[in-house]
Design brief:
alpha+beta; Heat Shock Protein 90; 5 strands; 37% helix; binds adenosine-5'-diphosphate; binds magnesium ion
């Protein structure tokens, strides 16, 4: 899989989630992340991609490579135009789910990366951005 510096994939099916995972893995490898960091980033991406599909009704994953002096990082954005999140504090709590999940996707992902940013409002969709630095 090509490790382009920036790109976008749809998240509209389980197969799309597999493709997104593969893309993130390829990007992490090309940035020479450690195996542990690769797995952390792929795990976070997987959770957020599934949220986009299941809770957000589908959307996209965008990625880009960041450079800060000699440091490089991988930034991922998960975007949908679904129902949004009414209570962010609740959604970010360990074990809270509005459905049948484990309720660990959002808080767990936050712990696995260096930067985590979420923007959401009822009726306005959801956008989650994460960054992992090498
Ligand atoms: N993209 C999204 N659109 C709407 N709601 C979301 C989205 N992502 C997360 N949520 C809400 O936040 C809750 C917590 O998400 P998460 O921690 O991943 O747990 P789970 O997916 O297991 O329910 C979800 O149950 C859902 O209500
Ligand atoms: Mg989830």
């Amino acid at each position: 899989m090509a490790a382009e510096l920036a790109g976008k994939l749809p998240l509209r099916s389980e197969h799309d989630i597999v493709m997104a995972r593969q893309q993130v893995r390829a990007m992490c490898q090309s940035l020479k992340f450690s195996l542990v960091d690769q797995t952390k980033m792929v795990t976070a991406a997987s959770e957020l991609a599934r949220n986009t599909l299941i809770h957000g009704g589908g959307g996209d994953m965008r990625w880009n490579v960041l450079e800060d002096g000699a440091r490089r990082g991988l930034q991922l954005h998960f975007e949908d135009e679904g129902p949004g999140i009414a209570n962010m504090q609740l959604a970010m709590s360990d074990g809270w789910t509005s459905g049948t999940g484990m309720g660990l996707g959002l808080p767990g992902s936050k712990r696995l990366v260096n930067d985590f940013d979420i923007e959401s409002a009822p009726g306005k969709g959801t956008r989650v951005s994460i960054t992992k630095w090498k």
